[in-house]
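Regression test case RT-17, inverse folding.

Input:
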């Protein structure tokens, strides 16, 4: 079933479309959860998180934008993984002596961060393939160099080289826009 058909089915609360979404996207969701958690979650916690992603998808079918299902599921997966990590590590409390007032939320720093994020997205969208795909898979889907190399049928060293060169180009382009990294 094509992604746009799955999306249409989900919006109509069709159980078959939901089953197809689970079947199609479980490997991707599991990969994101595993890569985001980087060993900080047990196998059971990761499985629970993957299940939570699809429960959230089902509860929020109205929020799916046509032709953006995969990205929407990836965002849910990343958020759920980070939430699970936080809940598992909740017992670790910050010592009052470790508090640094300069780390507090600042509107100006948040606006600055958002400007950098917007510039970064623009620069990545202008990047040529396959470098663009490598960057997205590495930084947004949290796939390893080995995973990317297998999927894209490339040598892992080639993937590393392309990633490093693209990262350097992105840094240079951000610097040209006045951002210091």
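Golden output:
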């Amino acid at each position: 079933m094509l992604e746009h058909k799955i999306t249409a089915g989900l919006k109509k609360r069709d159980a078959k479309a939901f089953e197809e979404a689970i079947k199609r996207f479980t490997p991707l969701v599991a990969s994101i959860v595993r890569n985001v958690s980087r060993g900080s979650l047990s196998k059971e916690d990761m499985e629970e998180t993957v299940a939570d992603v699809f429960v959230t998808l089902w509860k929020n079918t109205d929020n799916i934008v046509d032709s953006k299902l995969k990205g929407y599921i990836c965002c849910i997966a990343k958020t759920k993984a980070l939430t699970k990590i936080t809940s598992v590590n909740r017992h670790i409390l910050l010592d009052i002596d470790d508090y640094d007032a300069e780390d507090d939320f600042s509107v100006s720093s948040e606006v600055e961060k958002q400007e950098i994020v917007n510039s970064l997205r623009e620069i990545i969208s202008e990047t040529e393939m396959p470098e663009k795909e490598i960057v997205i898979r590495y930084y947004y889907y949290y796939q390893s160099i080995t995973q990317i190399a297998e999927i894209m049928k490339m040598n892992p060293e080639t993937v590393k080289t392309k990633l490093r060169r693209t990262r350097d180009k992105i840094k240079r382009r951000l610097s040209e826009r006045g951002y210091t990294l």
